[in-house]
User: Fold these one by one.
Assistant:
Number 1:
Amino acid sequence: MGKMTKINIQTFGCSSNISDSEAMAGLLRDAEFEIVNNLEDSYIVIINSCTVKGNSNIIRNMRRIVKNHPYKKIVLAGCITPDLISDAKNIKESISVIDTHNIKNIVSAVEETLNDNYIDILGKQDIEEKKINLPKIRKNPLISIIPISSGCMSSCSYCSVRLIKGKLFSYPMESIVEEARQSIKQGCRELWITSQDTAAYGMDMDGKQHLPELLRKLLDIEGNFMIRLGMGNPKHFITIADELIEILKNRKMFKFMHIPLQSGNDDILKTMNRGYTVKEFINLIDKFRSAIPNITISTDIICGFPGETDEQFRDSLNTIDKIKPDALNRSRFQPRPGTAAASMEQIQGGVIKDRSREITSRFDWIAFDCNRKWKKWTGNIIIDEKGKDETWIGRNAYYKPVIIEGDVKLGDVVKVSVKQITKHYLMAEIV
């Protein structure tokens, strides 16, 4: 099997993983492999995995591939834990494994696999070898996903990110700015700044938070583009909130913040080792909202953390009612091997499921209510995605998804008027 072998990449998890897949695709293309979107057309499959919420999705997907395509070669990549490797090799022993720290070696992993040499490339090589300024095949040609660091400053008791990716390693500012500059030259209209905790950027270098400085340098780049800031830990956002508010007012910034709450009860937050209180979290949201009315707030909640009582869960519901987020990512707690929470007393699966359902139905009303204020809104959106059935999806300055029909193309900026709202998006007409 030589060059131009067809490879399909399947991606699970966060925008950092999407960025890794784009970089692996770029490196493989430069090595004269062909990247295909269809699993059926491929000779080799790369599964870029995320195990933060457990292994079940990855394992289910792998079983399906092995059952339907027993002769396809498989490379397991991404955020990999020892238990995922053993589960995967129980399904198919002849696979190669390459973890998130080693994506620069994907070409070697693929070539060895094609020659029936199944290899494991694991562990940090040269302190992460920054995953930046690598060639990329973008999932969306308009969006450049730029990782600014790897690993984490925090040590939340439920999370395996620190175990898998290690301590925080911030990439050099000039490398990030250069990647942004090249992305804009290549026609990207949106820069997604991503990491496990964007707010902690630079703290490994000198103990100081350098995110505001980085964002200001990115905003100084010439060109017509928007920046979306990715998730950050509230405890780190609190200390730079004033600077961030001024930065978010820039016309090139999406007025959007992803700030995970995880629990609305102080005792649970303490057991989670999150480093902030519910009151501090609410004050932070209030601060952003009073400075930037209509700012879009996205948050996360974990249902069924070990030891969470019905009353403590009610506190989470009440906090969600208070902050009224525009978007809510709900996770059912799953113990991750090696984490402190895995050895705590677990809650029954049925209870967790009920709580997840309850928070979902409660949030549906909030989401619809949040979108009410956009009814009859008129303004510009940037078209950044093809929708279903001849529709297009655009984003306004507040990163609200707006669905339209019409003769437009990716990258167009069009003036629209909102005619209808749903809990998930706004529906508009071109004016």
Number 2:
Amino acid sequence: MKEVFLHYLWRFQKFDRKGLRTTAGTHLQVIHPGILNAGAGPDFLNAQIHLAGLLWSGSVEIHLQASDWYRHQHQNDDRYDNVILHVVWEADASVLLPSGEPLRTLLLSEFVSPQQLTHYQKTFLQPSHFIACEESMQRFSEADWSLWKERLFIERMESRIFAIESLRKDLNNDWEAVLFVLLAKAFGLNQNGVAFQKMALQTDFKIIRKIRSVSDGLEALLMGQAGLLNTVTQDPYALQLTKQYDYFKQKFNFQTPLGVHCTFARLRPPNFPTLRLAQLAQLFVKHESLLEAFMECKTPDYAFQLFEIQLPSYWEKHYNFGAESARVQKKISRNFFELVAVNALLPIRFAYAHQQHKKEAEKIFEWAQLLAAEQNETIKKFKALGVTIDHAGASQALLHLKKNYCDSKRCLSCNVGFQLMKN
């Protein structure tokens, strides 16, 4: 039994409401179950009930066991002083109010049918290989999925706002610096994302603005800050960057960041950290205000044009320092751009609009529908269950669903789970 199931039963009044009585035998009628509280304090606010002919207004608290009231220390929290009803599955203790009177308690287990309980247990509490409802998911319609995926995508974007806002404050309200940090993490992908992010956070964006016009200057700075110039031997280009980086360290009086460790392991050459940082550097060399240019883009196609950069000729025959390869022009591919767009560009556009009190959720979802869906194990498993995932908005939505609903067994807060319980 999960407490979230009790929340579902109470919120939607999915129990036998005839002949309701408290554990003390007092007749009970629910006028309004209240509003689910997502923050601290009682579970439901502004509820209304009739008890023995009197109308009571206040909060409702829900527990699996009545003794959870004391286990959670509610008796010492004045936010619970206006609780008018304690809804429990098991009445294993008598709970007293500060006045010494017993707290009115509804033993919900007496009013839920065995069939409903069995349905819940079979649908959500059986061991699963991937998600709890995987054997029943086909009963959730394509139309319902479409609406739910859009809502999940917006939830995912909203969940990024706090982190981006915090980053903006740390960077003195410099949105261009925020974009640099987000892009650095995205360019590092899974293997080097954290290392690139640390490098970006410890690199003063004011210096980037000052040296972006210096030939090879920004590339030298990023390579040095990421620790990629530390082990270079006699490669002339690498030595040139090292000399440039040492000059910047002395001129601007900064130290090489600690704890930045880039890896080449299990990476295809196009994703080597050396090449990705060279591309990132040229992106900020090309655009004096990349954020402003991006915010003016009407579609992802226009945004992709911003990422059309020209690397120094050295990189045509190299993926890493000192190791020559066949001559290939190292452009930013459309696939890589779309990964960056999903993980950096769309979140900052959403957060920037939110900070400007503009509503762009629908437009950003339209953008996401024009980007290819990500390919990973989670997405493959949802596809195997018959879920349509034909664009990045859908894949982002399902990644959010898996992490924030399925993994934490919030089945009855999910539209899929809610519909399955109705059926």
Number 3:
Amino acid sequence: MLTLPNILTLSRIVAVPLLALLLWPGGGWAAQALAFALYCLMGLTDYFDGYVARARGAVSRLGIFLDPIADKIMVAAVILMLVFVRTIPGVHVVAGLIILMREIAVSGLREFLAGLQVSVPVSQLAKWKTGFQLVSLGALILGGALPQWPWVHNAGIVSLWAAAILTLVTGWDYLRTGLKHMD
């Protein structure tokens, strides 16, 4: 159970409260810079847990279960904190909400389909969605550390909307697949 890949996945979950604390208002640019570094480290552990599991033949049921949960917890916590501190302001909150709604809906759909022993593979477009999502949140965190470079924040907002649009498209694809199995 406590293989290196699972430890890496668990470390992401354990790091979420620290990340939220670093994003808390009043921490200044240094806390934002540390939050960005931690976010990047969490992203690296996400890559390496899967890589190590496959390379060592250590893919486990626990890892398969925990990895998407760790990803969703991290993304949800970052979106919530960035909305809270108004890094994601105004109408842009809708993009964050779209991402959160899709993550919850697709998780529920996957659980339902798993009960029917139907697997829904991750599409290439969903991988692009994840890429835009991770880049956008990273840029928005980094933008807090570099307020003198507003283009970093603006790039984060544009990427957030790109992720939200891809989220709608991929969410619809998953829903269409799921509806075929509902009677």
Number 4:
Amino acid sequence: MTAEIIFRILGFILFGIIGWMAGTTWAGTSALNAFSLRYILPSTAVGAVLGAIAAPWFTTRPAAGIRRAIREVTAAQLLAGGIGLILGLLIAALLALPLSYLPSPFRSILPTIMAIVFGYLGITVMVLRHREFFALFRRRAPGPEDDETALEVKDRAREDVLLLDTSVIIDGRIADIAQTGFIRAPMSVPRFVLAELQYIADSPDSLRRNRGRRGLEMLNRMQKDASVPVRIIDLDVEGVRQVDAKLVQLARQLSCPIITNDYNLNRVAALQGVQVLNVNELSNAVKSVVLPGEAMTVRVIQEGKEVGQGIGYLEDGTMVVIENGRRYMDSDIDVTVTKVLQTNAGRMIFAAPSR
């Protein structure tokens, strides 16, 4: 029997008793007779039905909402909120003494208002700035061999963790990025992400199966070759089924970024205040800058959508659309850049043959 059913039964009994008492009050007597039952029975029935319907809204539903809210808050934020509440109430207690000399009714109302206001301010300030406050106690005095800046960098590198999602592991470019040494923080793969990779690798569809196996191979490669640790963590998020939603909630709890190349996950995480490191955005950022008027050599490998167009690619994968380049198919030609277009999919270069 679930808690909601138990509370519905209790509400049925409790409100039924209240309805019985209300019926006896309306009838003017507690004796059971034909006259009093006309008041007692309807009021008892109405009270019992209302109690069975409304009981969860006063018991299990608010409790479930509180549990969800607490689950999304990290332990550090809970501790900071408790400290902030205590500090706020101490300030309100100090103000209560001078406020008690005010004329009535201010001396009885204002201390309560001050306790509520400063308690709320204390919780809000400490929760929003808990990292800075806790960092004050973690720092040690710099010794002769290091300065304060170096200590802050070491503390940050020790605390930061990067969460990897399924798509970026399957993509594989994160393995090359990690091997170059640009990533200095440990990378973590939640157990539910690994389970999704295994599920994809066991898929009956050959394409999905190959993607899943590639992801497992990339993860194995990163564990062996990456310059930073790649760990499998057993942390999970209760009450959430979708892997992306779990990843976002876990990132909020750990206050750490997510590495992905999933556009939708990027947007959802950004809306919830989670930092996202998008591999596609990194790829676009490190591509070479090309300006109109520059000359380059491109190999035409396919036809374009428009008549006479040819398509080529730079070494970094940037597409080059060459006007009247179809006749140079499968050959290298010198072109002059006419326009550079930045799209959501990446950068496109439009050019014309130099000769």
